[in-house]
Amino acid sequence: MRNILSVLMSFLTSAALFFQCLFGIGGLKIGKVVLKLEKDTYPVATETIEAELYNCTFKSLSIGSYAYSLERWENDKWTPVLLKESSFPRPPATGLLSPLDHMNESFDLTEHEGITAGKYRVEASGSAFVEFELV
Q1: Contact present, 72 and 119 (Cβ < 8 Å)
Q2: Which residues contact 18 (CB under 8 A, 6 or more apart)?
Q3: Is 20 or 6 the better-scoring residue by pLDDT?
Q4: Residue 36 belongs to what domain range?
């Protein structure tokens, strides 16, 4: 019974996401990978930012717990924000995000050098960008 309920819930979640992507609800769009943050602005002391990664494509997406990069807007261009030397190297992608599925993703700002107030963007899994500001 539990297995049937799990399959039913998975189907309903995929169907709901399909219709959101199909009709552009919440900024989602068929054929796109979308990264969404809880907010557009965070205090500069924020350590971790929670996000959701939506795969509105019909292909699986390679993902990993550290498959992201952080950039800061400086001198009219995006500049990579380096990892601290004490941070562990990032492993390669460790899984797949199925078509018409989503997952929660955490971005640890404390792993990066020189986080100050300003405009930033996160790139996730090589296919989605989202901007935010630290104030």
Answers
A1: yes
A2: 100
A3: 20
A4: 2-134
Residues 14 and 80: their CA atoms lie apart, in Å, by 34
Beta strands 41-42 and 77-80 are unpaired
Indicate the residue type of 122: V
CATH at residue 119: 2.60.40
| Nearest CA-CA partner of 88 in 106, 111, 107, 64 | 111
DSSP 64: -
Residue 74's DSSP bridge partners are 77
pLDDT 10s digits, 26-81: 888 999 989 999 999 999 999 999 988 899 999 988 776 556 789 999 999 999 99
Overall number of domains in the chain:
1
